[in-house]
Write a structure and sequence with these properties.
32% of the residues lie in helices and 31% in strands. The protein is of the alpha/beta class. The strands form four sheets. Strands 1-4-3-2-5-8 form a six-stranded parallel beta sheet, with helices on both faces. The chain has a six-stranded antiparallel β-barrel with strand order 11-12-15-14-13-16. It folds into two domains: 3-155, Rossmann fold (3-Layer(aba) Sandwich), CATH 3.40.50; 188-261, Elongation Factor Tu (Ef-tu), domain 3, CATH 2.40.30. The longest helix has 17 residues, at 31-47.
Length: 262
């Protein structure tokens, strides 16, 4: 079972065994993120270490630029579940704050070393530290200096450009769910809860700040109580209306990529 630690616990009472770690916001756990996690698992197996992810409880972009943040691609609950399903042994959650944001890249890597991190996997566009004072090339140099083995992976490309959470958000915002699914490696999903406004209401509210595509009617696969039902989902603003009678208060709906269903 995956252990979930906060940053303070991780750095003050680290695991006794050495870790292979990847770092990032991991919003959506898209194909680029999946490549990093696969590499961490390989590194852990080859070097007899435990695979770990260091991520954020809330996306730093949401904390730093709330007015410009368009929404998340995945709830924290679903993110943790996916990490565990992919074989991650430890997940470290950082509460992004003013104090944490002042750490330099060197200070951050030093804290990882003290917490028994002995290998780290990042993408070639990785930036970290106060005001992004460090990048992937600097990480390679700093990590080796400290005794951490660095691995820098090339970007996963889609249509000639790196896959990123920002690109996926833009695709969803434009209603281009085929591109979003291609970059995620699976259909875009939302978790939503039924409102309690009136008995039998099928009106749904997305959990947390999950992104919704533009207003309209979409074909979705609804996962509820171990069953899957295909139906229409009508989106209007921040609410959605499901075309089936729900038995529970929470569902997960996957937007069907109709372009590949024909």
């Amino acid at each position: 079972m995956m252990q979930v630690l906060d940053w303070q616990s991780f750095t003050q009472n680290p695991p006794a065994h050495s870790l292979a770690v990847t770092i990032g916001a991991f919003d959506g756990i898209h194909r680029g993120h999946q490549a990093l996690i696969d590499a961490v698992n390989r590194s852990a197996r080859n070097e007899t270490r435990f695979p770990a992810v260091v991520t954020f409880r809330e996306n730093p972009k949401k904390v730093l630029y709330p007015a410009r943040f368009r929404g998340s691609l995945m709830t924290l609950e679903d993110k943790l579940a996916m990490f565990e399903s992919m074989g991650i042994a430890y997940c470290v959650l950082i509460d992004f704050s003013g104090k944490f944001a002042t750490l330099s890249g060197r200070e951050f890597l030093s804290a990882l070393y003290v917490a028994n991190v002995r290998s780290v996997v990042v993408g070639e566009n990785f930036q970290f530290g106060h005001r992004h004072d460090s990048n992937a090339a600097m990480l390679e140099s700093l990590a080796r200096e400290m005794g951490i083995e660095p691995y820098v992976l090339p970007s996963v490309l889609y249509r000639g450009r790196p896959v990123s959470s920002s690109r996926i958000r833009h695709a969803i915002e434009e209603g281009n769910l085929a591109d979003a699914a291609a970059m995620l490696g699976r259909p875009y999903c939302i978790a939503a809860r039924r409102t309690a406004l009136e008995k039998g209401s099928q009106l749904l509210i997305p959990e947390d700040d999950l992104m919704l595509p533009p207003d309209g009617i979409y074909l979705v696969d609804v996962f509820e109580g171990g069953e899957t039902v295909r139906c229409n989902l009508r989106i209007a603003g921040r609410t959605a209306e499901c075309g089936i009678r729900m038995r529970s208060d929470r569902i997960v709906a996957a937007f069907v990529d109709t372009a590949t269903q024909e």
